[in-house]
Amino acid sequence: MIEIFISKGPEQGRSFVVKGESAQIGRGRANQVYLDEPSVSRQHAKIYGHNGQYFIEDLNSKNGTWVTGNAIRSRLKVYTKSKRAEERLKKPSDELEREVMNRTSELKRARDGLKKSSVKDGLSGLYNYRYLIYSLESELKRAIR
Predict the structure, then answer these.
(1) How would you list the strands of the sheet with 53-58, edge to edge?
(2) Residue 94's pLDDT band (boundaries 50, 70, 90)?
């Protein structure tokens, strides 16, 4: 069984479930996946399974076949969600740790940048009114104690 999701274009959000190991996509009514869209060729692409793996192949369509934002030239192995997760788990732990550290430092820089831009004027570099009120309130609370 093959499940196809359309992620962009006029057919966005539509999905198709095809029984069997192959499906042809196109504007022609004879296709298992019929898309009534002028940019789709009559026989646009073919998806098929082989030894537990799935492939998509462009059938010399005029506008090409796109998968996750990239045009494919011949056949392309299509990863299922479970395959992507499986490959992700195969990465060595130090590689994953490095990626987590990079993402963490990116988030910290972004948070610091947001904090700085919320208290200082970007053009003049002077503290803004919100910062002044916040500082006065905190000083007042400290003086009352």
Answers:
(1) 33-34, 22-26, 45-50, 53-58, 75-78
(2) low
pLDDT, tens digit (0-9, with 9 covering 90-100), for 95-105: 667 777 888 88
The DSSP line for 15-56 is EEEE-SSEEEEESSTTSSEE---TTS-TT-EEEEEETTEEEE
Q: Report CA-CA distances (Å) from 66 to 39, 47, 61, 121, 142.
A: 12, 13, 11, 44, 61
Distances (CA, A) of 40 to 1, 13, 29, 84, 93: 23, 17, 12, 28, 43
